[in-house]
C-alpha cells in the first residue's frame, strides 16, 4: 500500500510519477524499497488515468451517502438490529472501495 500512497502523493503534488521519485518518498518514510515493486507500479500507472480512477473509486461511497436515522418510536432492540445492519453495509462498501483500488494498482 505504501507504494500506491507514494504515487498518489506525487500525483497530488503535480509531480511526475517515476521510479526515482517513488523511491525518494518511500525512503523518506523509512520504508525499505523493493526496486521490482517500484518498477511494476510505475509501469502499471503509465496506462492509468489516476484522476478518473480516484473519481470512480470514490463513487460508491459518495452515492451511498449517510444512512437514514432510525425512527424515534422504534423499540431499543429494533434500533440495535438496524444499527448492526447499517454497520455491515458500511463495512462492505469500504471493503469494495479498497478492493477496487488494490485491483487498480495490482496489489
UniProtKB/TrEMBL annotation:
One of its GO terms (biological process) is cytoplasmic translational elongation. Keywords: Ribonucleoprotein, Ribosomal protein. GO terms for cellular component: cytosolic large ribosomal subunit. It comes from the Archaea. The keyword Metal-binding does not apply. Residues 69-107 are annotated as: Disordered. Gene3D superfamilies: 1.10.10.1410. Pfam families: Ribosomal_60s. Residues 78-95 have a biased composition (Basic and acidic residues). The keyword Cytoplasm does not apply. InterPro entries: P1/P2_N_sf, Ribosomal_P1/P2, Ribosomal_P1_arc, Ribosomal_P2. GO terms for molecular function: structural constituent of ribosome. Forms part of the ribosomal stalk, playing a central role in the interaction of the ribosome with GTP-bound translation factors. Belongs to the eukaryotic ribosomal protein P1/P2 family. Part of the 50S ribosomal subunit. Homodimer, it forms part of the ribosomal stalk which helps the ribosome interact with GTP-bound translation factors. Forms a heptameric L10(L12)2(L12)2(L12)2 complex, where L10 forms an elongated spine to which the L12 dimers bind in a sequential fashion. This is Large ribosomal subunit protein P1. The lineage of its organism: Archaea, Thermoproteota, Thermoprotei, Thermofilales, Thermofilaceae. The gene is rpl12p.
